[in-house]
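Board notes (copied after class):
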Amino acid sequence: MTATLSILSAGPGVTLQDGGRHGYLRYGITAAGPMDPLAHATANRALGNSLGATALEVSLGGVEVTAEGGPLGIALAGGAFRISLDGTPLPAACALTLRPGSSLAVRAGRAGAWTYLAVAGRLDLPATLGATATHTRSGFGGLDGRALRAGDRLAVAEARPGPGDPHALVAPWLVRPAEEIRVVMGPQDDFFAVDQIAAFLAGPWTVTTKGDRMACFLDGTPLTHAKGYNIVSDGIAMGAIQVPGEGWPIVLMADRQSTGGYPKIATVIGPDLGRLAQAQGGTRIRFRAVDRAEAVAARRSEAASLAGTMALEPLIRTDFSAEFLLGRNLIGGVVDGAGAHAP
């Protein structure tokens, strides 16, 4: 079955992202892909898609969509956004069937900077260099190389419905406070004296509001360089932390440049990229140095979470098993016969 996802409204920064465009860094083309790879994969996993399937990446500006041509399964995962179906609030992580005539609204909420809207089926888009990921600065990928806007219509091949009624998506691995971000030191940490390495790790650093898909800018006590702040330009991995002459660290993200000439004091490990990406402006963070073995273990733990059973919990239950009841706090307070709280 073919259905269409129609964009009713879209704030800035709503793009189409698959798992990324890999293998072209030597040509100056970075991968793009999701800012929060774990949330992107979770939304796809909830619908039985491949983990890197194309989905909508929604920023704080939000989006509103409807289905045309038939019912369409939808899953959302990411930050604590406000989700509503025809005005009825839904959990921030959920799966549902979007029916023609209904509207699903996604708005910024109490926490998080990105959420992902996946569809049950395949967004029918031409690949650019083997991927559909949108890189807006280069103007290619996704839909005409640009952010989505009102009036866009996205064909969904092999469309499938989702749960009959909206279900909460139980994904505890998406709860990732950003207070501590793990890094592997280097590759140019030798450009900083021991006391500056200690200051970098001690922090705290504040995430500023001027970040975007290219970089996360941090504020705090500026670092100083022991060997100057210019190097021969070399490759930039997602999560690389450059320290330019001003001394404030910049974490390079999904739409980063391919090379850079400032020393990189450390690199955020893969499993913590989404943790950092979800930090809204004003969030205070610290970095913790880990070795390669711990970074690999964290990646394996993340993969195991995605490979395990993903529960979908109905929002209205008729089966109150002992297991379900024991997992809930059913006591909201004790009152006496007159309705007052008992001592």
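Comment from the instructor: Helices lie at 37-46, 194-202, 273-277, 292-307, 322-326. Confidence is low (pLDDT under 50) at residues 333-337, 339-343.
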